[in-house]
């Protein structure tokens, strides 16, 4: 981590902590994130559109400032801005102008609500409408900041000032992942919610980095990236960070069932400079109503689907004939949808593509329907690699998870098993993957060979003989770290001890006889 990145991250954390203190007693626990992330986003899109217009107009007038323009004059470029940027903000409604006048605004709560509604409404009838619709629904200004207008306004002024104090040169070019870092810090602050409030689940950034690098390997571009349970969109955006967003040729695709996470994912795309026409995030149940079906399959699929969540399964008679699940001849258990997500991902993976999926280890060895699904995947040579991760990497989850890597263009029928359970560094009460840990794991995936106590390149027959058990511990023997004992040396020591004990016993018996004869 370089100095600039560290400084930016610390500044962000201090600002979030400051806001948390300002809202203490007003907003409970995990709801607090909506205010932080909502205002961060409001500031970002304000500065984004302001800079865009300034850059264009300053070719004609070097002193032009959109923030100083009258609203009536600005309306003349509204249609063009909506077409180019997907949204529009009047000069008076820019973050900088609202923050500057916030203290004197007796109706600040109403002003902010109207501005957010106006931003969303600016896209109505435009191609970008779906990407902005309902974007600020979770930013409930009117209900939680206080009982009176004055109380709400007082809190809002402090919030706007705190967000304004962030001095990143540009969110797009910042060294840190703004939303990801903010989200992760918020999780740490409210650890009791474990990042799963309302069905949410957050993947630590370094795990996302590992998943993306496993998929990318030596590629310099991919056609498009897909996550069927995308949460706040962090896994998708790792590809933009590593390859550059311009090298994700056809964009970023995701689906998320939780409404709050769905809104955060769209916000996250905009925060990372992904234009509305370069991403498609849908809200709905991927397993029963997939909304990203496309004629062109995906080269890159990454996901951390919800663990052992319930789904309709056999209770829905239509699912067994669904082209995603039908090939296995059986559906994942209704109580455990893990392998239903795997089947869905496999169905949408391109012939040249790679998928990396985080799973609970139970899917690797449980019997019944899950064993039959594993059999289908192995028999058809879709399973490429299984990686055992260290324990305690995720918020609210101490158990060791694993990564399942799928491919459809394997050179042979082998399956690589990797024990990466020791690849971590201790950070506070959580384990983390360092840059070196990630490099080490990716190297093992790439080299694809057997290394004692670390990896095992299993043949198809190996897996079949083990009844399609894919647990890493079945194939990779852990190193015996117990102290090695030389039996010959130990026996020699025992003989010496026995000899000494016999000598002592003779001496003691002699003393006792002398005492008895006195």
Tell me what the structure shows.
With 518 residues, this protein is an alpha/beta fold. The protein has 19 helices and 11 strands. The chain has helices at residues 3-23, 32-57, 71-74, 78-85, 95-101, 108-121, 129-132, 141-144, 149-164, 178-189, 205-216, 234-243, 259-271, 338-347, 369-379, 435-447, 460-465, 472-475, 487-517; strands spanning 225-227, 252-256, 279-283, 298-303, 349-359, 383-388, 402-407, 415-419, 425-427, 430-432, 455-458. Helix 1 runs antiparallel to helix 9, helix 2 (32-57) runs parallel beside helix 13 and helix 11 (205-216) packs parallel to helix 16.
In short:
Helix content is 44%, strand content 11%. With 518 residues, it is α/β, with parallel strands linked by helices.
List the main descriptive attributes of the protein structure presented here.
about 45% helix, about 525 residues, two-stranded antiparallel ribbon, nine-stranded mixed β-sheet, single chain, alpha/beta, 19 helices
């Amino acid at each position: 981590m370089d100095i600039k990145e560290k400084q930016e991250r610390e500044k962000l954390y201090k600002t979030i902590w400051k806001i948390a203190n300002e809202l203490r007693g007003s907003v409970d626990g995990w709801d607090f994130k909506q205010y932080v992330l909502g205002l961060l986003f409001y500031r970002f899109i304000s500065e984004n559109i302001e800079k865009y217009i300034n850059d264009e107009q300053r070719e004609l007038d070097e002193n032009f400032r959109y923030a100083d323009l009258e609203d009536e004059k600005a309306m003349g470029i509204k249609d063009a801005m909506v077409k180019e940027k997907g949204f529009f903000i009047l000069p008076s409604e820019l973050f900088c102008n609202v923050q500057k006048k916030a203290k004197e605004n007796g109706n600040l709560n109403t002003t902010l609500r109207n501005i957010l509604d106006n931003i969303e409404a600016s896209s109505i009838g435009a191609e970008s409408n779906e990407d902005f619709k309902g974007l600020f629904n979770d930013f409930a200004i009117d209900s939680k900041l206080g009982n009176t207008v004055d109380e709400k306004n007082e809190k809002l002024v402090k919030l706007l000032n705190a967000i304004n104090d962030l001095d990143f040169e540009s969110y797009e070019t910042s060294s840190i992942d703004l939303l990801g870092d903010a989200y992760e810090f918020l999780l740490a602050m409210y650890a009791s919610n474990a990042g799963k409030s309302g069905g949410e689940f957050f993947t630590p950034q370094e795990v996302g980095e590992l998943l993306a690098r496993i998929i990318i390997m030596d590629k310099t571009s991919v056609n498009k990236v897909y996550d069927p349970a995308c949460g706040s969109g962090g896994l998708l955006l790792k590809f933009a960070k590593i390859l550059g967003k311009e090298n994700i040729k056809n964009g970023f695709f995701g689906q998320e069932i939780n409404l709050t996470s769905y809104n955060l994912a769209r916000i996250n795309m905009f925060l990372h400079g992904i234009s509305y026409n370069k991403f498609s995030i849908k809200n709905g149940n991927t397993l029963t109503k997939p909304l990203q079906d496309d004629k062109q399959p995906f080269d890159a699929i990454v996901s951390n689907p919800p663990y052992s969540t319930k789904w309709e399964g056999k209770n829905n008679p239509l699912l067994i004939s669904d082209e995603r699940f039908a090939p296995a001849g059986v559906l994942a258990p209704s109580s455990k949808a893990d392998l239903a997500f795997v089947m869905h991902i496999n169905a949408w993976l391109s012939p040249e593509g790679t998928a990396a999926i985080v799973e609970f280890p139970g899917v690797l060895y449980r019997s019944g329907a899950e064993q039959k699904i594993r059999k289908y995947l192995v028999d058809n040579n879709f399973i490429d690699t299984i990686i055992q991760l260290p324990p305690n990497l995720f918020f609210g989850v101490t158990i060791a998870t694993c990564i399942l890597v799928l491919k459809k263009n394997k050179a042979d029928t082998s399956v690589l098993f990797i024990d990466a359970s020791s690849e971590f560094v201790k950070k506070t009460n959580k384990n983390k993957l360092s840059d070196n840990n990630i490099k080490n794991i990716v190297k093992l995936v790439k080299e694809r060979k057997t290394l004692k106590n670390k990896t095992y390149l299993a043949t198809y027959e190996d897996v079949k003989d083990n009844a399609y058990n894919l647990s890493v511990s079945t194939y990779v023997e852990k190193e015996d770290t117990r102290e090695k004992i030389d039996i010959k040396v130990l026996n020699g020591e025992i003989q010496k001890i026995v000899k000494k004990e016999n000598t002592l016993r003779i001496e003691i018996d002699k003393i006792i006889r002398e005492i008895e004869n006195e």
